[in-house]
Structures are given as C-alpha cells and as structure tokens.
Amino acid sequence: MTNTTLRSERLDIPDVHAVQELFHSRGWTDGLPIVPPTPDAVQACLDWALMPPEHLIGVEPVRQQGITAEKVAVNAVMAGCLPMHFPLVVAAVTAVLHEDFLVHGATASTGGCGILLIVNGPVRAETGMQSTFNALGPSDRASTVVGRAIRLILNNQLDVRAGGIDRSTLGHPGKISFCIAEDEEGSRWPSVAAERLGDPHVSAITAMAAMAPRQIMNEWSTDPEEILDTFVAEMKANMAHYSIWSGNYAIVIPPQLRQHFDSAGWSKAEIRNYVFEHARIRRSVWAECGKANVVADKGDHEYCALPDPDHLLVIAAGGPAGGFGAVIAPWLGLKSKAVTVPIGACIDC
Q: Which residues contact 184 (CB under 8 A, 6 or more apart)?
C-alpha cells in the first residue's frame, strides 16, 4: 500500500541527530530518544492492522478530541513499536478513551498516576512479551514500547505535558511505560481478560489509572490467608497514607506465592473475596498518620478498599523465585475504572 494518504506534516531532516533535537525542542518526546516516524514505518503499522489513516480510534470524552489511526501509528513508531505491536497500542488507546476510564481526570490530576496496561492472550507470545523475571520492570521490547506509546500519544495528541495539562506533583516512573503481560502459561487461574470478558482465548488489554507498585514480601508462611494479609496490610497502608476511597486495586502474585494458593486450592475469586472482606480501615486510623484534623466525628466509619470483590485485578506474573508480590493502588477511587478491550476489536464502529 502507498503512503500518499498520510496527512501528517512531513519534515525533511536527513540527520538522525537533528531529528532528535528537533523533536525534543518541540516537546514531542518523553525525554528519551525516539525512532523517527518515517512515512513507510507509519504506513507499515497501519497496513498490519488493516486500518486507513483516517480511521477514528476514539474521542476523548471531556475535551472531545478525536484520535486517528495515523496519529496513533506515528507515536507508536516514535516509541519503538514494530507493526506487530500496533494492534496492542490501538486497543490500549481504545480502553483509555472509554468514558469509564476518565483519561482527562487521571492525566490532569496532581495525583500523578500512570496508565497500567495488562496484556492477555496469544498476542503475548506473538510479540515476545515476557511475564516472569522483572515483570514490572524493563522485561522485554514489546511491553516497554507499547507502554511508552501511550505516554507519547497522551503528550502529542491530548497535550498531556508536564506543567501543562499534566499537573502531577510527583508522578512516578510508570508514567514512561507501565505494561505487564500475565503469566498465563505458569498459572492455573483464568487470566484477567478471561474473567472480565468471559473468553479464555481472547487477546486483550486492560487499562487502569494506577499509582506506582508497592512491593511486599512474605516468605514465612504457606497459608493463603496469611499471605493475603500481607497484601491487605499494604492496601490498608495506602488507604491511610494516600486515598481512603474504594476503587480498582491490582495485586501481582509471582510463582513462589502462587504455589501456596494452588496447594490450598484457592481460586482468584476466593482471593478477591478474602481481600474484599479484610482490606478495610476505620477513619480513626488517619489520626495515626498526621490526618487527625479530618477524622472529626467519623472515626468509627469503616471504609473498604474495594466496592466489591470484582474490582480487584489479580495478576499472575513474576520470576520463579522469591516470596514477593506487589500491590498497585488506583489513582482516586472510582473516578476512573479499569477498562478491558479485546485486541483487534472495533468499539462503537
């Protein structure tokens, strides 16, 4: 296919170093070097997904800004994506633009959340995603560039730049790239996408407005309830120190801890139910961490981390050794909800 239908501005810059400096000077990057988005590279992404450049991926609900396939492809190439990665980026953008996600609130808030992407299904193997060692870090090319593409799209299509629309007080490193593939082959549990969409074979991506991971460790127990008590303690700490409001939380459970749940016959549903019942604090706890002025006469009022068990995302991922896990807290209660989108699906076409 030709690239004559591409409408983006074309720049004739023969020197790759000059490209980097120009893009940095115009605020088109995240501070890292980019891959020059040549017409051929952009068109290759569109061809892979069988999308015309003008195809509307979605509209940001608050400011009514549309995002086309061409613009998504430009930023995906800049992030380092290959054509095979492009459908994941499209699905992630579709999820983020869903009204339930509230991307404007999440990205404009002083709270500083990032966008966590959870990838499920055959697409993980097709793109070479790794779900074991360093699962929440720089584990593989696909996870890193897909997560980074979302950041660049926010920058360049929705003007979400630091000090502009992005008013984060601190932010966190996941705002550069925050993408994890679930270890479906190493887990007896259904995947996040299978539970949320009802299809065990679907390739899908889940987007969640998320704070930085909070790592936990419990190598001293094989009892599922005691292991979950460690996760719960971290969730309760987040409610005391950051936000008391209930919403989507995610917990990441690596193999060493998963085998204790397997031995006891625990399902993801049982994990969610236990956490829902125990991840609660009373408002009086705020008096113990410098917030006594807002306790008032509501000290006995109980708050739950989750509005219901299904708001907990249980992710199987991580290296084979180490009694570690992670709690990933939501940005701000139910203002933003996790959204799951099948890869290759057309929403509201």
A: 120, 121, 124, 131, 191, 316
